[in-house]
Automatic annotation (TrEMBL):
Pfam families in the record: BTAD
Keyword Repressor assigned: no
Protein's GO biological process: phosphorelay signal transduction system
InterPro entries with a match to the protein in the record: AfsR-DnrI-RedD_regulator, BTAD, TPR-like_helical_dom_sf, WH-like_DNA-bd_sf
SMART domains referenced in this protein's UniProt entry, alphabetically: BTAD
Coiled-coil zones: none
Annotated keywords: Two-component regulatory system
Keyword Iron: no
Highest taxon of the lineage: Bacteria
Protein name, entry field: Transcriptional regulator
Residues covered by the Bacterial transcriptional activator domain: 94-237
Gene3D superfamilies linked to this entry: Tetratricopeptide repeat domain, Winged helix-like DNA-binding domain superfamily/Winged helix DNA-binding domain
Length: 239
């Protein structure tokens, strides 16, 4: 049987046998919710979260319609129902779940080792750089987006430091920049990017990155980089 994969990092896409499958809007929202709620969710809670602006009766009707749409997607069952609880079928792989699992394993290790091959880590950086369902304005996504952004920030910074220690400067720089794209004000990733430039001997690039970051903070927040970052630049320019 053809493998089924759901991608919600970036635009929504359901893939079966290597080909994209058309999914109606209502079914898209239901599948996305179930993909994020890996443990499943009660029917009433699903209806309330997906259609908060509707009456309970209308929301329940919308949920039944979305379930009907999901049954027409293909030969495989994509939504399983046990009593009043709904869940995504275990036969469907989800990019968000896989990336979260890899990031969690990376962050929970305390022996300095990494849980994947170099190719796997490069792919993880790519996945961590993707936002969760960009353009979707659903209220239920707000907290899940925040959780995803926090996890990928810490994971990307950890990967950047790992690559830097190995002398993989391009990979380290890309991971650090991916983290700055998630949160342009967070200093940690900018500091790692500066350290990468310094390790390569590109002092001018390090100073430019610092000045650009300082300008951003002053223009947007009226604050300055930390003393730690300023000292790092002084050490580079005084050498």
């Amino acid at each position: 049987m053809n493998a089924v994969r759901l991608e919600i990092l970036g635009p929504f896409e359901l893939i079966r046998g290597g080909r994209s499958v058309a999914v109606p809007a209502g079914a898209q929202r239901l599948l996305a919710l179930l993909a994020v709620r890996g443990e499943g969710i009660h029917r009433r809670a699903a209806a309330e979260q997906l259609w908060p602006e509707c009456t309970p009766l209308r929301a329940s009707a919308n949920l039944r319609s979305a379930l009907c749409q999901s049954r027409k997607i293909g030969p495989k069952t994509v939504v399983v129902s046990e009593g009043h609880r709904l869940a995504l079928s275990p036969c469907i792989s989800v990019d968000h779940r896989e990336a979260c699992g890899s990031a969690r394993r990376l962050l929970e290790r305390d022996d300095g080792a990494t849980p994947a091959t170099p190719v796997g880590l490069d792919r993880l950086v790519e996945d961590l750089g993707r936002p969760l369902l960009p353009g979707w304005g659903d209220e239920w996504l707000i907290l899940d987006r925040e959780r995803w952004d926090q996890m990928r920030l810490y994971a990307l910074e950890s990967l950047a430091q790992h690559f830097l220690a190995l002398g993989r400067f391009l990979a380290a720089h890309q991971a650090a920049l991916a983290a700055t794209a998630v949160d342009p004000y967070r200093e940690t990733a900018h500091r790692i990017a500066i350290e990468v430039h310094a390790a390569e001997g590109n002092v001018a690039c390090a100073v430019k990155h610092y000045l650009d970051y300082r300008r951003l903070l002053q223009q947007e927040l009226r604050v300055s980089p930390s003393q730690r970052m300023a000292e790092l630049i002084r050490e580079l320019t005084s050498a």
